[in-house]
Amino acid sequence: MIELKINQDITSNKLNHAFTFNVPDNVSSVSFQIETEQALWLTYMVYDEKKELRAQYVRGKTPQPVTVHIEREKTSANTISGPVKAGEWTMDFAVITKDDVTALTDWATCTILFDAELETAVVGDLYPWQDGETASFQLNVYDKELIFNAEKSWYKGDFHTHTIYTDGKMTREENMQSAVSQKLDFFVATDHNIVPTSWFDETDILVIPGVEVTAPLGHFNIISTLTSPFAKQRLADMETEEGMNKIINHHYGDDSIISINHPFLTEWKWLLKETPLDKVDTIEICNDPTYSFNKKATEFALMAWNKLLNDGYQITGVGGSDSHLRPDETYDGSDIPSLIGDPGTFVYCDKLTAANVVKALKKGNVTVSRGERVQFRIDDLISGEHCPQNIGVATAFVETDEAIYFEWVIDGEIVAREDGNRSEYAYDFSNDLAYHWVRVDVRYADGSFYGFSNPIYFGEKQPTMKKWGELLELVEDKIND
Fold this sequence. Notes:
Jelly Rolls, mainly beta, 27 strands, 14-stranded mixed beta sheet, 2 domains, 5 helices, TIM Barrel, single chain
């Protein structure tokens, strides 16, 4: 047994430090147990003697101890099973507290056990995404081409979710129950800084591995990743612009997505001005609409997205519930529960597979709604497609009895409004054959957010902005009013 005292020689409310320990010969498992009496946000990553990432942990309600075992069936969730070799292993810690911790004061204690007789035996997940033989962080048996529905159709999902393995209140099983209740077809697992390496069991809902990289200056999702951002980078990289750009620029698989989360939400807004815009695939326009501060954040995101679209970027707008609560719980100031799938993001796929969901995201074949799907077309064209006709009629429809209205948005300007669940707009770009785009925003009768479509495009434009900071300069006056 080894006992690590987690401390540092300076007074601070942040700790970023790597501790090493030696694994003896002929070991089948290594287990880790964190104990602390302090209120803190604690993350660790465990690397073996070859510097391969083997375990991930964020302090929440994660079952402890966390065990890395040579047998897949006996290893904990969010770890990599396989050979446990003797040598120097490393635990990389990142810890944040509200108040400063005095130098040399213990923040936490980590007990490390080898081949331990645990009080509660670890029962491995039934649906592994890595082979359990090669001890490297690769989801090499996750099948992105596995078909969950063979029909060409619109499919509803949630791109931003959390569980007890970080700061969510629901287990993965409870998340799936909620997803079924919300009639989701797919679900992206995006716990803070943790990439799932398995799932509790096979499900009828398509589960896509992801992660929310949670840094002091902004959060972003990596969707459909086959590895961890911390397999090559380290937790301390989240503290700097340079480090975050290294994480963003890393290759996570051909079918992966970089998505900026809640970019204008209070203390969680995206403040990384050096972020290269050409690396951003999607932006979370609407984050949990039952959280009161998201009302303004959604409007700011719509405004900033319009600026990007006008500059020639065809970045896809998505939604995410950012689910943390149980289905019967509400945030302060809301009488509506915070639910998985609110808002829902609808994608158009030939067949429902993880690979096809990503393809639809990259093409912009996407609409977002708190209720029924926003149906938006020009003839046979849907969101994300390019229209060759400079004169025509765009139509929008929502199959609902709720009181809603449509706002027609052309090149960032609201050009028309129409009450009801059906609307159309006649456009004419014949006198200006430059780049244009058309989409709709949908609102409840009181003006609050209901949904939106991604644009249909006319022509192309070479973007001029390069970095997120340039976008902030365009919108900061209105955001800071």
